[in-house]
Design goal:
With 147 residues, the protein is α+β, with helices and mostly antiparallel strands. The protein has one domain: START domain (Alpha-D-Glucose-1,6-Bisphosphate, Chain A, domain 4), CATH 3.30.530. The protein is built from three helices and seven strands; from the N terminus they run βααββββββα. A seven-stranded antiparallel beta sheet has the order 1-7-6-5-4-3-2. A hairpin with a 2-residue loop joins β5 and β6.
């Protein structure tokens, strides 16, 4: 199993950070493994909303259907995979960072590759460990750059 646990401080209010990380249209911009993302359920996102993700896989695109399991604006957001070749869980915890108006974003989760992909776990772990700090820094730049 691949464990993820990263934290970053973003110079924007918690509501702005929450709205950016929960907007499905933004997923491919700050998560390098995601090629495409679309909300499958109608209406505003919330608990139970389903999201289709197309990930870059070792042998080509991987389709995953995910579901939002926590949606507490502006403090917590979590998703889990429903279908696909990996059991994925991800949670964002958002809190005020001191008195400056900055936001602390903590992303943690797990990826458990299944079937034939289990053999690629070591390689996938290295990619996640290499790309996650870069993706989190890029996420902060994108959110801070919003006007």
């Amino acid at each position: 199993m691949i464990e993820i646990d990263h934290e970053i401080v973003i110079a924007r209010p918690p509501e702005v950070v929450f709205d950016f990380v929960t907007d499905v249209a933004n997923y491919p911009a700050w998560q390098p493994a995601i090629q495409r993302a679309e909300q499958m359920s109608p209406g505003e996102p919330g608990v139970g909303t389903q999201v289709r993700l197309v990930l870059r896989g070792p042998t080509g695109p991987i389709d995953i259907l995910g579901e939002i399991v926590t949606f507490d604006r502006p403090t917590a957001f979590a998703m889990r995979s429903i279908t696909g070749p990996a059991a994925i869980q991800a949670r964002c915890t958002i809190s005020q960072a001191g008195t400056s108006g900055d936001t602390r974003l903590r992303l943690n989760g797990s990826i458990e590759l299944q079937g034939f992909l289990r053999f690629a776990e070591g390689q996938a772990r290295k990619i996640v460990e290499r790309e996650m700090p870069i993706a989190m820094a890029d996420l902060a730049r994108r959110i801070e750059g919003q006007v």
